[in-house]
Design brief:
- About 10% of the residues lie in helices and about 55% in strands.
- The protein contains one helix and eleven strands.
- A hairpin with a 5-residue loop joins strand 6 and strand 7 (about 100).
- The chain is elongated.
């Protein structure tokens, strides 16, 4: 190998290393898991058990990604294939008030889990969603919470093994 070839390879390796060092890295702010089935059988938004963060300090303009994953099923009358449960991922201020629903969550139109037409809890799936916060919230301490809701004839939902992960 010629000296020129060796120098080219060395410069290429150094350039690659310089690009790699500058790559953005995600930092985990909080992570938790919960096991055991949580049955939801009321219509309004219900806290998904164990899926709330401690207070997290957020600076203006800070971006957060919130990952929620769960095993779930929906109970609806036999033949109903359009019943579902959805989740909202919300930011709470220090007083516990909702100050933001994270996109793409918010409202009941985003099905997280749905019935398959069988009577009883059915349609078991492992699903996930990643919500994003590009904040213009004031500097402060906030909590992240996951809430579930029944829709379109669903009478129950079961949330099994679940995970909440917050990164920036």
């Amino acid at each position: 190998m010629s000296l020129l070839s060796l120098l080219r390879r060395s410069f290429a390796a150094a350039a690659l290393a310089a690009v790699s060092v500058g790559a953005a890295q995600a930092h985990t702010l909080f992570g938790t898991t919960a096991t055991g089935n949580q049955i939801i059988n009321v219509p309004g938004p219900v806290l998904v058990s164990g899926m709330v963060s401690p207070f997290i300090s957020i600076a203006p303009g800070q971006r957060l990604l919130v990952h929620f994953a769960a095993e779930c099923a929906v109970n609806a009358p036999a033949g109903n294939t359009t019943a579902w449960t959805d989740v909202d991922i919300v930011m709470l201020n220090a007083a516990g008030a909702v100050v933001r629903s994270l996109v793409p969550m918010g409202g009941n139109l985003g099905a997280f889990c749905s019935a398959d037409g069988s009577a009883g809890l059915s349609g078991w799936r492992s699903n996930k969603v990643i919500a994003e916060l590009r904040t213009n919230l004031p500097l402060g301490r906030y909590r992240v919470q996951v809430r579930a809701r029944l829709n379109n004839g669903a009478t129950q939902a079961s949330y099994g093994e679940r995970t909440l992960l917050i990164t920036n």
